[in-house]
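Thread amino acids onto this structure.
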């Protein structure tokens, strides 16, 4: 190499290095350095392709393209294959090389889409960071079909410089994004700590957290799943501005990737195809096709017990990186603490409600119940003191007083039992049989299965069973009733059947607005309790043939919502 060539090479490298150090904007830097490279080397045109892990490529910079390659907004630069990228993807492009001719120019010339200005060949230089390839640099001139070893070596040196600059900028951008995301994480955490109270604090938190994630982070897709026995339940989901609470149940056996994510020690990168399992069928195609990269992190109580999974996704194949994963882990940790606090709040409310019920039951027993008993005894004493025909009217009134007192005492005792169901610990069927006996009913009870009932389900079945037996006592015209409880693998089925007068449901088996207004209210009450727990209520009755109610509730404790007080 002559001294002039050596000086020219050093000048070129110096110029490129200065250009690379002038900006932290990647697009601006690539466009500028490509222009300076062509200027100092005397070459005419060039472009830079970035290629991702999926071999998708993007033209990130170009200079002086001929009209043929500018056709239809550079269509030939955006699609199709070429020999340089084929060699790159096959792992055969290790150093700067001569390419026989440019396939993109050849295609444009064959389709007669514009002037190629005499361009036919270009040199191709791989771009790398360390041992990782990330793109190619193509440069050439009209009529130039060969590059000397010195020219290729110079282009190789420039490519190394570009690689170093790109890595520096990517690290800078990653650090900026890390700082930005962790700043948003602080805001998210502060917003998440607002007090949530009431029967459904956990449900409120799911929606509140999903809204906050959408407000503070730029993840296009977020889903929060709870582990529920052998299932994962999609509690809340956000896609762009669409916020859903699908409560979609997914078997762990059908989605092992969710089980893997829930048991992991940190975030996991997942296959984008898995996203379809989280979305109801009507929206699967629309959402799944738009998402390419997926990250999932476990939501863990106390650092050990995995209670769910938080999933994010992005439409770009490289749209999520390690920074997003680290922040997602932190979001999941904050969310786990908030969910545990919500659970403790629900437990606190349960305990407070139970204490209040017990206090009220004691007060009723010590005051109203004793008073009614005194009235009954007093009325009986008055009756024994009165005699003779002249007091017949008084005796009749006193007898009425006795009857009313007995009825009031009976109703009050029933109310006390409802407030403090002491017999439930013996089992729902046993408790309902004892309650029915107090109402003067003959209850035939049967239990199938022995799985423990979740607290919410047990309370709901007790209330529904009481209401059903009350209806039998007041309206059925029979004392015979059957109560059956079947505890199955995934659901609980309670059936209460009488053999009384029945009623006309208008041909609707699950009607709840039949007969008297009082009965309609009771049936509606039973239906609401079942449906609020994710279950179903069914009434079957025919005039003269009796009445049967069926209540199905999901067995999973995590699927049970607490029943509001009526």
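Threaded sequence (566 positions):
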């Amino acid at each position: 190499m002559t001294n002039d060539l050596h000086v020219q090479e050093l000048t070129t490298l110096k110029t490129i290095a200065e250009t690379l150090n002038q900006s932290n904007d990647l697009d601006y830097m690539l466009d500028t350095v490509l222009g300076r490279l062509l200027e100092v080397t005397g070459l005419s045109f060039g472009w830079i392709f970035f290629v991702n892990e999926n071999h998708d490529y993007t033209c990130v910079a170009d200079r002086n393209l001929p009209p043929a390659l500018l056709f239809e907004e550079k269509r030939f630069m955006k699609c199709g294959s070429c020999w340089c990228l084929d060699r790159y993807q096959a792992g055969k492009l290790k150093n700067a090389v001569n390419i026989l001719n440019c396939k993109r120019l050849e295609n444009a010339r064959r389709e007669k889409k514009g002037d190629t200005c005499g361009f036919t060949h270009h040199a191709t230089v791989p771009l790398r960071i360390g041992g990782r390839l990330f793109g190619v640099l193509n440069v050439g001139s009209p009529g130039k079909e060969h590059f000397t070893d010195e020219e290729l070596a110079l282009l190789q040196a420039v490519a190394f410089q570009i690689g170093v600059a790109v890595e520096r900028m990517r690290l800078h951008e990653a650090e900026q994004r890390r700082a930005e995301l962790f700043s948003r994480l602080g805001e998210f955490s502060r917003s998440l700590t607002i007090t949530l109270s009431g029967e459904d604090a956990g449900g409120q938190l799911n929606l509140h957290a999903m809204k906050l994630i959408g407000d503070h982070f730029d993840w296009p897709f977020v889903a929060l799943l709870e582990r529920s026995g052998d299932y994962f339940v999609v509690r809340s989901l956000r896609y762009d501005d669409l916020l859903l609470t699908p409560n979609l149940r997914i078997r762990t056996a059908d989605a092992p990737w969710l089980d893997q994510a829930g048991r992991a020690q940190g975030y996991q990168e997942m296959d984008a195809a898995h996203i379809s399992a989280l979305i109801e069928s009507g929206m699967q195609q629309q959402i799944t096709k738009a998402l390419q990269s997926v990250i999932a992190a476990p939501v863990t109580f106390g650092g050990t017990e995995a209670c769910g999974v938080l999933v994010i996704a992005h439409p770009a194949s490289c749209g999520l990186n390690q920074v997003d994963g680290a922040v997602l882990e932190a979001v999941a940790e904050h969310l786990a603490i908030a969910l545990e606090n919500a659970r403790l709040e629900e437990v606190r409310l349960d305990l407070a409600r139970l204490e209040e019920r017990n206090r009220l039951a004691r007060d009723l027993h010590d005051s109203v119940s004793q008073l009614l008993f005194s009235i009954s005894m007093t009325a009986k004493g008055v009756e024994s003191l009165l005699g003779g025909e002249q007091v017949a009217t008084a005796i009749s009134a006193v007898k009425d007083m006795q009857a009313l007192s007995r009825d009031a005492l009976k109703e009050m005792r029933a109310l006390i039992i409802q407030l403090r169901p002491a017999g439930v610990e013996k089992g729902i069927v046993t408790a309902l049989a004892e309650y029915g006996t107090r109402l003067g009913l003959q209850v035939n009870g049967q239990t199938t299965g022995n799985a423990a009932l979740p607290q919410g389900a047990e309370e709901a079945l007790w209330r529904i069973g009481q209401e059903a037996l009350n209806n039998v006592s007041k309206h059925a015209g029979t004392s015979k009733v059957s109560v059956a409880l079947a505890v199955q693998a995934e659901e609980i089925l309670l059936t209460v059947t009488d053999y009384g007068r029945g009623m006309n449901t208008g041909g609707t088996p699950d009607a709840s607005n039949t007969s008297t207004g009082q009965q309609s209210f009771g049936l509606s009450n039973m239906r609401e309790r079942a449906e609020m727990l994710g279950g179903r209520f069914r009434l079957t009755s025919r005039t003269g043939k009796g009445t049967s109610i069926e209540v199905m509730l999901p067995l999973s404790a995590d699927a049970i919502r607490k029943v509001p007080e009526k």
